[in-house]
Specification:
- The structure is a single chain.
- By secondary structure, the protein is of the alpha/beta class.
- The chain has helices at 8-18, 88-91, 166-177, 194-208, 230-237, 242-245, 253-265, 280-291, 299-319, 360-368, and strands at 47-50, 65-68, 74-79, 132-136, 148-153, 159-164, 186-192, 216-221, 269-276, 324-328, 332-334, 339-340.
- Helix 4 runs parallel beside helix 7 and helix 8 (280-291) packs across helix 9.
- The longest helix has 21 residues, at 299-319.
C-alpha cells in the first residue's frame, strides 16, 4: 500500500461533507462562497443557488442546490454525501451538534466546494468541466430519498424534529432547472458516500426525466453499508416514496438498486462502482449498524469492511458483468489501523493516476465514451 499523505484541503472536505460517523479529523479549512440565486435564464459557466420553495435541511434551516449551465450538451446530476440518521440516537447527533461522533450533516453549510474540487471543478484535467451540473448538497439525514419528519429527543432533553426531506428537496431543485437542460446527448448520475446511496436510489427517477436519452452512466463512489432494517428505515423513518423504498429487499441498498436499474434499463445504462478497499468512514458506520458502537474505527473494523466489499464486488460482477469496478488503497488515513480514505469523486485526487495507472476521472470518462473497465480488483484479497 502506498502511503500518500493527504493535504489539509482534502481533510477539510472530508470533515465538511464526507465523514459518516465523525472520523475524528480536525477541520482545517472551510468554504463559504457567494453564488447568485437562480432567477430567470442562467448564464453559461456561472454557478447558481437553486432554492425550491419550502426546501429545508434536517435542522430546519433553508436548503438549496447548486446549478451550472455548461457549454457541452451533456448533463450531470451529482449527489453529495454527508452521513445518515436511522434512529433516535443518530438523529440527536447531527454534526452541527456533535463535532466528534456526529452522524450526519444537518445543514448545507460549506458544501459549495463542489465548484472548486473534483468532478464539479473547472480543473483543466476534468473531462466534465464543460458539462451542465445540478449538484444536490446533503443536509437531510436520509439518502436523498426522504419526504417526512422524524421526532426525537435532543441531547439536552428537548423534543425536536429531523426534517428528512432529501427527496422533496432534490425533486424541487430538478424541476426548477429542467427547462435549462435541453435535450442532452449524455447523462451522468453520480454521487459519493451518502450521495452514492442517493445515486443508487434515485438513478431511475433522474433517468425518467430524460426518457429518450440512450447514453446514461451511473457512478457510485464510496458507498457500502449492510443493515437488515434498511427497508424499515426507508419507509418509517425517512418516509421515502413507495417506488423507491420498494427497491430495497435486502441488507444492501446499493446491490438492490443496481440490480433493479440493470433489470429496468439493461444495456441503456452503464454502471460504475468505486471504493477504497478499507474505507475509514464506511468501516466506522458499519460498526454502528452491527454493534451500535460509535467510535474511532479499528483494524478489525477495516477487516470487516474489506470482507463486505469483497463479497459485494463479487456479487456485483456476477450479477451485472457489464459493470465497471474501481478499487484503490493508496491514501491511508490511519496507518496503524490500515484504513483508507473515504471517497475520491470530489477531491483533487480525482485526477490522480492510481490503479493500473488510471485516474478515477479517466475511468468515468472512458465509460461515458462507451469503454467500461475494472481496475484494482486484486486489492480485494490483499493482506494489510
Amino acid at each position: 500500500m502506498r502511503r500518500r499523505k493527504r493535504t489539509g484541503l482534502v481533510v477539510a472536505v472530508v470533515i465538511a461533507s464526507l465523514v459518516v460517523l465523525g472520523g475524528g479529523i480536525a477541520l482545517k479549512k472551510t468554504f463559504l462562497m457567494e453564488f447568485p440565486e437562480l432567477r430567470g435564464t442562467p448564464e453559461t459557466g456561472t454557478w447558481y443557488e437553486v432554492a425550491p420553495e419550502g426546501a429545508v435541511s434536517a435542522d430546519g434551516s433553508p436548503w438549496r442546490a447548486f446549478f451550472r449551465k455548461g457549454t457541452a450538451n451533456r448533463v450531470m446530476v451529482y449527489f453529495l454525501g454527508g452521513g445518515v440518521s436511522i434512529d433516535e440516537y443518530t438523529a440527536a447527533r447531527g454534526r452541527s451538534v456533535v463535532r466528534e461522533g456526529g452522524f450526519y450533516a444537518d445543514n448545507v453549510k460549506y458544501q459549495d466546494f463542489v465548484a472548486t474540487w473534483g468532478i464539479g471543478s473547472q480543473d483543466g484535467r476534468n473531462p466534465f468541466k464543460d458539462w451542465t451540473v445540478l449538484a444536490i448538497p446533503y443536509g437531510c439525514g436520509d439518502f436523498h430519498c426522504g419526504t417526512g419528519d422524524f421526532p426525537y429527543t435532543s441531547l439536552d432533553g428537548e423534543p425536536r424534529v429531523l426534517h428528512h426531506h432529501g427527496y422533496t428537496n432534490y425533486a424541487g431543485a430538478l424541476s426548477m432547472v429542467m427547462p435549462f437542460m435541453g435535450q442532452p446527448e449524455a447523462l451522468l448520475v453520480c454521487g459519493y458516500s451518502a450521495g452514492g446511496w442517493g445515486t443508487a436510489l434515485l438513478a431511475e427517477d433522474v433517468i425518467a426525466h430524460f426518457p429518450n436519452l440512450p447514453d446514461v452512466t451511473v457512478c457510485i463512489d464510496g458507498s457500502l453499508g449492510l443493515y437488515q432494517d434498511w427497508r424499515y428505515v426507508a419507509e418509517n423513518v425517512w418516509k421515502a416514496p413507495r417506488e423507491i423504498a420498494g427497491r430495497i429487499v435486502s441488507d444492501n441498498i446499493i446491490m438492490d438498486c443496481l440490480l433493479a436499474l440493470d433489470r429496468d434499463y439493461g444495456g441503456r445504462v452503464k454502471i460504475l462502482y468505486g471504493c477504497s478497499v478499507r474505507d475509514e468512514a464506511l468501516a466506522n458506520v458499519q460498526t454502528y449498524f452491527d454493534a451500535k458502537r460509535n467510535g474511532k474505527p479499528t483494524r478489525t473494523d477495516g477487516d470487516v469492511q474489506q470482507r463486505n466489499l469483497k463479497r459485494f464486488v463479487r456479487q456485483l460482477q456476477d450479477s451485472i458483468p457489464s459493470c465497471g469496478v474501481f478499487l484503490w488503497d493508496d491514501i491511508v488515513t490511519q496507518p496503524e489501523e490500515a484504513l483508507t480514505q473515504h471517497t475520491i469523486l470530489l477531491t483533487r485526487d480525482f485526477f490522480t493516476d492510481r490503479s493500473a495507472g488510471v485516474s478515477f476521472a479517466k475511468w468515468i470518462d472512458d465509460a461515458v465514451k462507451g469503454h467500461t473497465h475494472s481496475y484494482g480488483l486484486d486489492l480485494i484479497d490483499k493482506k494489510y
